[in-house]
Amino acid sequence: MSHTPPSLQASIHIGASSISMLVVERLPDGHGGTELKSGDFLEQTVPLARDIFQRGSIRRSTIEHCVKILTGYLEALRELGAPDDIKLRAVATNILIEANNHDAFLNRIQIGCGIQIEPLDDGEMTRLIYLKTRRRLRDTPSMKKRTTLVIHVGPGNTRALLFKNGRISDYNNYRLGVYRANEAIRRNEEADHQLNKNIREHIRSLISQIHHDYSDEGVEELVILGYEIQQLSQNLTQPGKTKSSASALAALTKEVSAMSEEMRVKKYQLDYNTAQSIIPALEINLAIAQTLKVNVLHLPGNDYERELLLDLPASISLTEGFQAEVIYSAESLAKKFKVHHSHSTQVAKLSQQLFQQTSDLHQLNEHDALLLNCAAILHECGNFLSVRAHHKHSHYIIQHSEIFGLGKRDISIIALIARYHRKSGPKMSHVSYRSLSAKDRIRVSKLAAILRIADALDRSHSARIGKLSTRIEKQKLIITLHGVSDISLEQLAMRAKSDIFHDIFGLRATLEGSI
Hints:
Blueprint: E1 7-14, E2 18-28, E3 34-45, H1 48-55, H2 60-79, E4 87-92, H3 102-113, E5 118-119, H4 122-139, E6 148-153, E7 158-164, E8 167-174, H5 178-186, H6 195-214, E9 221-225, H7 227-231, E10 243-245, H8 246-257, H9 261-268, H10 272-291, E11 296-298, H11 304-315, H12 320-336, H13 341-357, H14 359-362, H15 366-378, H16 390-399, H17 408-419, H18 431-434, H19 438-456, E12 467-473, E13 476-482, H20 488-497, H21 499-505, E14 508-514
């Protein structure tokens, strides 16, 4: 029996204050499959966030330092025996796009190292937090019973996920981050001893927004995630435990604030970037706990960066559980704006049937199906503002809302699909549509065409169509409505709403009933 040697894959993360790499072995599990075994972990500091928030751009010396580190990592992979075509995923912190020379940075990395770097968008960052939180559901059983707020304070943004009975009930993203706050304060601080006071003043308005969003939710526990705060988790929890308290966090904040950066480096084994940024990390988390009057905190003791790298290969795929949470978030938003539930649910169901049965036509993927589902759920949310021109109001509401797990690009696509569910189709004179890439404009047109047909099929808002099937004959898409004989109302609506489908796919959509 031949022995299958382990295969290697690697993940690289260019973070706010460091560049890290994790090598993973794929080993046979003895059952015909494979299992992952975490291997070598490398990490070196870089002042990326400091450059971005101090200067608005990344210094040339920092860029060259990143090239040197990454070149060394590639050499380390060769020394480990990794093949030239090793499966490698390399990403960068989502604050990178705030640097006005981020394109030059990415180009220099690609030319200098031959590595294509993907900046993490809001959607994938949320997916990574979701993967971390799913583990917390296992090691913190109380999350399945109690109202828990998961807080991730990142370098530039803070994300909040509200869990009720183990399900995501609400999601928000705030422009409140460790390095964003730190650099804003250090530009204006009068003396070191005023740093904590200045941070609290600086973050006050955003903390008030968090209070407004969650003070009435009955939050019983906080789960705190983040690179900086998890560096100190062992100082806030008992060995092998995750539970701590707001009072313990307040005491540690006071203790750390009284130290010099050199003392923090020595006592807590921090690098100098983290030693400088740890104060805003502590103050932001403490302010959230205090404003919501929550004393029970949970801090995972695992290595934040190593865990993120381990999750990177999985975060780009949409698991069934993750998709369910995205849809649940869209449904919660629809409920907030009093969308007609039975109609939106019916249109979503029909749009998914049409999507699956016309896959050879549109050539779209699973993620596109998810965007269509969300658009169907939310397509009439604009009625909350006004029935007149409600498709435009739907676009506005969705464009300015958060849907868990989806980034700004996805939100923009959903908003446009909803806009085009009635009246005119996509036009280059529409600024939001014109601003998309050519590929995304085609995606919007295809999905809007499907949504319009699904909406026409529930013209009566009676949800009377259960199953449909499609076939193509003589330049027609023939849609058979099973269990329905009188289809006169649907035919009337179809004549008004199948225009985009005809324009995009070159097929005229027609209906037939079937008992």
